[in-house]
Amino acid sequence: MIYDITQPLFECEVYPGDTKPEKRHIQRIENGDIYNLTDITMCVHNGTHVDAPLHFIQNGKGIDKIEIEKFIGPSYVESHTGDVTAQDAMDILKRAQQLQENAQKKILIKGKAVITLEAAQVFADAGIDLVGNESQTVGPEDAPMAVHLVLLGAGIVLLEGIRLADVPDGVYILNCAPLNLTETDGAPCRAILIDSNETAMRFDH
Question: What's the longest Cα–Cα distance across the chain?
Fold first, then answer.
């Protein structure tokens, strides 16, 4: 089973103040042109996207400098509502590791959850690769800076604006490789989850 956990770009939620994605048809076959051609404008943090350290850290890594391995590999999905506390973060990491080795390296939180500063520090101390959530930002929407600084400062990739409603809790193979945009603070991606059990069965045969 493959789950597409990406928002449709032109119907996506937009973080307050960000540019809304728009498309413009500059060539149309129906208008007598020989091909269809579409132009788009958008913020690199529209829809489902990843944050690079450069987003909040001066001279931090741009999206093109992040190792591709951070975006691909075993991941763990867990449902949570409300604040993710330090204890919640520790429990999530423990459950992920118990289910599959290295699944705790990429954590995806399903539901209306807010990563607290204390939880961010737990993830940073654990040296994980990635944290994903359904909101357009990790941490409180009205004060996202502190949580971003802790996570991005620890080299943790942030996968924001994912959609997990149809995904049961558990372990999956994640691929959220972003567009290779030179020296940008983030980039859109097509995020998918592959059932890790099905992947293992394929390799067994």
Answer: 62
DSSP state string for the chain: -EEE-PPPGGG----TTSPPPEEEEEE-GGGT-SS-EEEEE--TTSSSEEE-GGGTSTTPPPGGGS-GGGGEEEEEEEE--EEE-HHHHHHHHHHHHHHSTTGGGEEEEESSEEE-HHHHHHHHHHT-SEEEESSSSSS-TT--HHHHHHHHHTT-EEEES---TTPPSEEEEEE-PBP--TT-SEEEB--EEEEHHHHHHHHH-
Rounded to an integer, the average pLDDT of 38-65 is 96
Which backbone phi and psi does 23 adopt, to 5 degrees? -125, 150
pLDDT of 202: 41
Question: Residues 67-91: pLDDT tens digits?
Answer: 999 999 999 999 999 999 999 999 9
Average the pLDDT over 37-63 and give the result: 96
The pLDDT tens digits of the residues spanning 28-43 come to 999 999 999 999 999 9
Residue pair 161/12 in contact by the 8 Å Cβ criterion: yes
Contact 170, 198 (CB under 8 A): no
Query: Parallel, antiparallel, or unpaired: how do β-strands 72-79 and 170-175 relate?
Result: antiparallel
Residue entry with tokens 């069965």: 201
